[in-house]
Amino acid sequence: MERAQQEKKPVGSDDTFNPIFASMQNVSEDSGHRSFLDAPSPYRLKPDNSSSDEALKQIRTANTVSISPELFEKLYLTPHKAVKGELRGAFGNPTPVALIGFVLSCTPLACELMGWRSAGGNGAATLGAYYFCGGMLMTLGGLLEFFLGNTFAFVVFCSYGGFWFTLGSTLTPSFNAYGSYSSDPLKPYEGLTSAGFHASYGFFLLFMGFLCLLYLICALRTNVVFVTIFFGLFFTFVLLTGSYWQLAIGHVTAAAKLQIASGAFAFLACLAAWWIFFAQMLASVDFPFQLPVGDISHVIRSGSDRLQVKEHFSA
Fold first, then answer.
1. Under a CB-based contact definition with an 8 Å cutoff, are residues 273 and 103 in contact?
2. What is the largest CA-CA distance in the chain?
3. I need a surface site. Which of 82, 187, 262, 288 has the fewest CB within 10 A?
4. What is the mean pLDDT of the segment spanning 222-237?
5. Mind giving me the DSSP string for 253-270?
6. In sequence order, which residues have a C-beta less than 8 Å from that of residue 288 and are 6 or more positions away?
7. What SS3 state is found at 242?
8. Which sign, positive or negative, has the C-alpha torsion 265, 270, 273, 274?
């Protein structure tokens, strides 16, 4: 009788986190290895005399699986949190879209900042990537994260999407961002070498670095790879700020060294982003092996957990 009652217990009625993934189906009856896919499910095929049509119906409706907090955090780059609705099961994971937009924009820029194979021009050669990869894909991914209830990923992706749009528009002549600093209206490109432009644009990079610092602190609740990304980006923006300010006062040699160093830190962030993108793509197709991302969401206890402990002892 007790076993029958347990089988009738609906999925998600316990206290474990149970998000919805339409692409994952738990129809296995026997398994020698226990994992998150082995959680009890009413959609398991039963060894009875059910018709084949009923069996196929069971497979089609197997839309829920219990996944570990570590896997959820790897897929969505945010600590697991229950949200209303079943959008996570109805739609795909938008996080890889934003990540691929980031790496296809930042990786070439990092190489250009380091001057590999005589690259240069402050990334003007990859202007299109800033608009259509970094700006568009990261903003799109961020908006989709919003509908899935992933606030941290939503804010991070949209803010970096805005950065790529800003960088692209600054380098686009029709926006006349640097032309305003040129003494000759017929030669707007001279504004790129003016002290006023370098000093002014440095402030934007400075506060982007401050934003990355805030993200770095928040990422301590996610995983090591995400922390590495923000660590690299923080120093990228800080060093780029120093480079622009050194150019503003005419210290060209020091500015060049700071630019190379900023490119190195940007490349470090890109390597980490490529890693977590690959890890998510492997997880999306249920590949036989998975890449570790160094889950550290358990290191710093969440505020809700601390509140529950406090209420438990005060009761």
1. yes
2. 89
3. 288
4. 96
5. HHHHHHHHHHHHHHHHHH
6. none
7. helix
8. negative
Amino acid at 5: Q
- What are the backbone dihedrals phi and psi of residue 61, each rounded to the nearest 5 degrees, phi first? -90, 10
Copy the structure tokens of residue 61. Answer: 């409706």
Query: In 3-state terms, what secondary structure has residue 94?
Result: coil
Reference 209, options 262, 249, 259; nearest CA is 262
Please state the three-class secondary structure of 106-175 as a single string: HHHHHHHHCCHHHCCHHHHHHHHHHHHHHHHHHHHHHHHHHHCCCHHHHHHHHHHHHHHHHHHHHHCHHH
Judge if pTM exceeds 0.85: no
Token duo for residue 206: 């400075």
**In Å, what is the CA distance from 285 to each residue of 93, 139, 246, 278, 279?**
12, 24, 48, 11, 10
Query: pLDDT tens-digit profile of 136-169?
Result: 999 999 999 998 888 999 999 999 999 999 999 9
Which sign does the torsion angle of CA 272, 278, 282, 284 carry?
positive
Q: What tokens does 155 get?
A: 């804010």
Q: Which residues pair with 295 in a beta bridge?
A: 223
